[in-house]
TrEMBL record:
Residues 31-310 form the Pyruvate carboxyltransferase domain. It comes from Lasiosphaeria hispida. GO terms for molecular function: 2-isopropylmalate synthase activity. The keyword Transferase applies. GO terms for cellular component: mitochondrion. CDD domains: DRE_TIM_LeuA. This is 2-isopropylmalate synthase. The keyword Membrane does not apply. Keywords: Amino-acid biosynthesis, Branched-chain amino acid biosynthesis, Transferase. GO terms for biological process: L-leucine biosynthetic process. PROSITE patterns: AIPM_HOMOCIT_SYNTH_1, AIPM_HOMOCIT_SYNTH_2, PYR_CT.
Length: 606
């Protein structure tokens, strides 16, 4: 690279516009959109699309809500011409959709372009001509005067062939003209206005049917604020503004196409041309998805529906053979996804706080979420795509996965211990940690190796004076058993009312054990019973939770499943090692028993 870059490159001469108004404005409505995927996007592909592919793409664009679609450059190839005819003859164009066909300012190419559009209901004929000094001098060797004359000649020709035609079929079409002074950004603003005035006078637009001036950044050569000044200048100086639609067509050479297009709209432009996911020449056209979603997330309906963004990505990738970047705004595979611990923690807290707020309000709340500028669900993105785990993750994300798999919220201490283990695993194996891995690690470290091997055949719980034995009538526990199943609530109540005595018959791997114990609640009575089985430990921590999930097999009268989750932290008799145990069961006694035995088993083998 050069050190003295000024020897090769000049700074772009900015326009002096001291009274500019656009910085004070904001966007409160969508522009008129034109998709040029089937023209600018298509002409930039290694293998341009065939007729069938273009038809599928066209139908998707219509479905998304586009009302103006540049369908072809009919003079470019037979495929382009035939595709345009096919759309018209098969009546594939909805009545409210304008098709746009494009040609250079060459008479022999304009004629077939209009022939291709014959019979369509609404057609925009788009001609382009280079107006920038560089292009005029290097490519065309034409003066400004000669350039204006050519543009006017072509406009008159199009007028003769379309709205002034004597051919009754051609007269039935509603025709509009679009003229692109190319590259507008690099054209003197005075000359851009002058040539557009000449074209407008030749076409004679009306307030009902505007002429479109497509003031393109064919090649992006300056900052977005410079572009906005140019657009404001053009909008202020073009006459009969009410008969003119100012259209933007930004390429992304400096990576600023979205910003330039948004600022261009602030500066007065009415219409935007671009492609889905920024396909197009060189660095691409402006990305229509980003522009639409940028409006959406400011509370402005873009009029285009990206509610199933994955399907749009699949369609575009298949037909263009270009992958949408994994970090593309709104649409990338990783766009809403975080691997990072602190981000995951914030997002998890965000979702919890949102759920609490919505429960309180009884209606959907405004979106306010750390790290997620919009709700991925609005794009049809599932929450699973939000959090992914690797060695950079933390307890927020790992707790989220455990909740996905087991529908439990781990106590903080357990979450910290499990997170350490998962991170070590991810680092040692150099892998992404999937839901399956989380399930395996969690089960093998905290749950009974063979939970089906433990059965509660009978169980009676008695409190001091009152017998509180009640059957919960839940399937899945063999044998007759009578016991209260209100978890912590019962435990608290019982601890106030005196000693709880537990008598039960359990089977471990088919071998019957009669156990009994007493304590201040169900849990402590169970602990004392397990001690009598020969296990030696102390309880350091104990938590219990009820899960409710709808529509599964073990339903209560309200149609929801109730399962109890018990978390127990034990320390070995010699106070050497500790271990967590977790039990999840429809029966709260069994859940606690699973947790205690699982932790005790781990202590014995550690
Ligand atoms: C910025 C943009 O993307 S504009 C859209 C451009 N799209 C395309 O070019 C895709 C389709 N194009 C094609 O298929 C071909 O280029 C065609 C059919 C248009 C023309 O093909 P050819 O006649 O072989 O010409 P070629 O492709 O070399 O184009 C260059 C010629 O067109 C002229 N030309 C280029 N742009 C224009 C224009 N806007 N108006 C008039 N003439 C033009 C050039 O000056 C050159 O003329 P010359 O041969 O007298 O020197
Ligand atoms: C609108 C046309 C001329 C175009 O593709 C461009 O300027 O990039």
């Amino acid at each position: 690279m050069l050190v003295d870059t000024v020897k090769k490159y000049n700074a772009f001469p900015a326009l002096s516009l001291p009274d500019r108004k656009w910085p004070q404005k904001s966007l409160s409505k969508p522009p008129r959109w034109l998709s040029t995927d089937l023209r600018d996007g298509n002409q930039a592909l290694v293998q341009p699309m065939d007729g069938d592919a273009k038809l599928r793409y066209f139908q998707s664009l219509v479905q998304l809500g586009y009302k103006e679609i540049e369908v072809s450059y009919p003079s470019a190839s037979q495929t382009e011409f035939d595709f345009t005819r096919r759309l018209i003859t098969t009546k594939a164009i909805p009545d409210d959709v304008w098709i746009q066909v494009m040609a250079p300012c060459r008479e022999e190419l304009i004629r077939p372009t209009i022939e291709a559009a014959r019979g369509a209901k609404k057609v925009i004929v788009h001609i382009h001509l280079s107006t920038s000094a560089c292009f005029r001098e290097v490519v065309f060797n034409m003066t400004e005067r000669e350039t204006i004359e050519l543009a006017v000649r072509c406009t008159r020709l199009i007028r003769d062939l379309t709205k002034d035609s004597t051919d009754p079929e051609l007269r039935q079409t509603e025709w509009t003209l679009e003229f692109t002074p190319e590259n507008f950004q690099d054209t003197s603003p005075e000359f851009a206005v002058e040539i557009c005035e000449a074209v407008k006078a030749a076409w004679e637009p009306t307030e009902e049917n505007n002429i479109i001036f497509n003031v393109a950044a064919t090649v992006e050569v300056a900052m977005p604020n410079v572009f906005a000044d140019q657009i404001e200048y053009f909008c202020d100086h073009i006459s009969e503004r009410e008969k003119v639609c100012v259209s933007l067509h930004n390429h992304n050479d400096r990576g600023c196409a979205v910003a330039a297009t948004e600022m261009g709209q602030l500066a007065g432009a009415d219409r935007v041309e671009g492609c889905l996911f920024a396909n197009g020449e060189r660095t691409g056209n402006v990305d229509l998805v980003t522009l639409a979603m940028n409006l959406y997330t400011q509370g402005v309906d873009p009029g285009i529906d990206f509610g199933d963004i994955n399907q749009v990505v699949d369609m575009v990738e298949e037909l263009t053979k270009i992958a949408v970047h994994a970090r593309a705004p709104y649409a990338g595979k990783y766009t809403f996804c975080t691997f990072t611990g602190t981000h995951q923690d914030a997002i998890r807290k965000g979702y919890k706080s949102r759920a609490r707020l919505e429960e309180k309000l009884g209606v959907s709340a405004k979106w306010r979420m750390p790290y997620l500028p919009m709700d991925p669900a609005d794009l049809g993105r599932k929450h699973e795509a939000v959090i992914r785990l690797n060695s950079q993750s933390g307890k927020g994300g790992i707790g989220w996965f455990v909740n996905d798999v087991f529908e439990i919220d781990m106590p903080r201490d357990l979450e910290i211990a499990f997170t350490r283990m998962v991170k070590r695993y991810a680092e040692e194996k150099s892998v992404e940690v999937t839901h399956d891995i989380i399930e395996d690690l969690f089960r093998s470290h905290y749950m009974l190796r063979c939970p089906e091997g433990l059965q509660l055949l009978r169980c009676t719980l008695r409190t001091g004076k009152v017998c509180s034995a009640v059957s919960n009538g839940v399937n899945g526990v063999n044998g007759e058993h009578k016991h209260e199943t209100k978890g912590k609530a019962l435990a608290n109540k019982e601890s106030r009312s005196g000693t709880v005595r537990l008598q039960a018959v359990i089977a471990i791997k088919g071998i019957r054990h009669e156990i009994s114990g007493s304590g201040e609640d169900m849990f402590t009575s169970l602990v004392s019973a397990v001690h009598r089985l020969g296990f030696c430990f102390d309880v350091l921590d104990y938590h219990t939770q009820w899960q409710h999930s709808e529509g599964t097999e073990h339903e209560d009268s309200a149609g929801t499943t109730r399962r109890s989750a018990s978390f127990v932290k034990l320390v070995s008799g010699g106070k050497i090692s500790t271990s967590w145990g977790v039990g999840i069961h429809e029966d709260s006694v069994l859940a606690s028993l699973h947790a205690i035995l699982s932790a005790a088993e781990k202590l014995e083998t550690s």
